[in-house]
Amino acid sequence: MHKKLVNFVQELYQTKEFIPLHAPTFGGNEKEYVNNTLDSTFVSSVGKYVDQFEKQIETYTGTVKAIATVNGTAALHTALYMAGVKSGDLVITQALTFVATCNALYHMGAEPVFIDVSKVSLGLCPKALDNYLADNAYINNDGLCQHKVTQQFFRAVVPMHTFGHPVELDELMTICAKWNIALVEDAAESLGSFYKGKHTGTFGDFSAISFNGNKVITTGGGGMVLCKNYDEGMHTKHITTTAKVPHPYEFFHDEPGFNYRLPNLNAALGCAQMEVLPKFLAQKRELSLQYKNLFKNSDFKFVEEPEYAQSNYWLNAIICPDEASRETFIKETNANGVMTRPIWKLMHRLPMFKNAKRGDLPVSEWIESCVVNIPSSPVNNG
What we know:
By secondary structure, the chain is an alpha/beta fold. The protein has 2 domains: 2-25 and 277-374, Alpha-Beta Complex (Aspartate Aminotransferase, domain 1); 30-275, 3-Layer(aba) Sandwich (Aspartate Aminotransferase, domain 2), CATH 3.40.640. It has helices spanning 2-12, 30-40, 48-61, 72-82, 100-106, 126-136, 169-179, 230-239, 264-275, 277-295, 323-335, 362-370, and strands at 65-69, 90-94, 111-115, 137-139, 145-147, 154-158, 182-186, 194-195, 198-199, 206-210, 223-227, 301-302, 309-310, 316-319, 341-342, 357-358, 371-374. The chain has an 8-stranded mixed beta sheet with strand order 1-11-10-7-6-2-3-16, sandwiched between helices. Strands 12-14-17-15 form a 4-stranded antiparallel beta sheet. A hairpin with a 2-residue loop joins strand 8 (194-195) and strand 9 (198-199). Helix 2 (30-40) packs antiparallel against helix 9 (264-275) and helix 3 runs parallel beside helix 9. The two termini are 29 Å apart.
């Protein structure tokens, strides 16, 4: 099967040079807008493109307020902070995720709790979450959720929309409401993905998007916090701008803040990329259909969007028959200049999270052993 993929991908991208998993595409107004920022000298966090980029994200996603940050991890950190996560708290997330999800809460002094993922979405499994809370949590007299043994507070649930495929949000929101835990969506990979017609990142109290160089659109480095409430959105903007009280020249800061605002230079890139986002998504959807057809009637299963969702197909993936075939597939494709890679190591296998609380992880372990990502850059068919 690896030979078939190599031939297909080389023909698709019209090259026998190295083909990456996901390369940025620049063919619109990127150079013009970036040059405008250089001409204006407003290259840092003050400038018209920062505000414009936030407005574009608000319009596209339907979120009440979007706040641009320097990267996706900063957006996650801010979202968790705004959701009330404090040192010593427990934050439930999935073991199958990129490490940034856990790094953000680790540096807040919070602890991750790893729950299994669903075969439906490859994201946090509602049933596994509910079972874990039933076994390990209780609601105290103040209505807050605590761990039965350690008495730590369960402060947030952070599902991640793996490869852009939306998690089962209705079920997760019901569980979060039942246990009085904040829902914070890690939507780093899911710009352009919709759950039952509504954009991901607009269900949680706060959510985080990433615009890293390998995402659907890029600002080089950048992120965005999506806020469900306008006042909390304005507070989010305040704390990401060092909590400085507006004044023509005085420096007065009224609470501990972060210097997390996205520079105008990066935002200019984002504004131009947003103009072509629909085109990118259409190209990526067409690519996913071609992959689906390529792997049809083989032992390798192409990962499709859940029935309830419209995914952005950020990173296409296949499920190999077993771990041995996965290793052969990865080795041979990379040797022939077509980049493929395994999914991330499960978080509890990393040294800093090896002692974290966790539920049973059978689906996560199965996916870890069998899933491979394949080239997913948008293809311009003219």
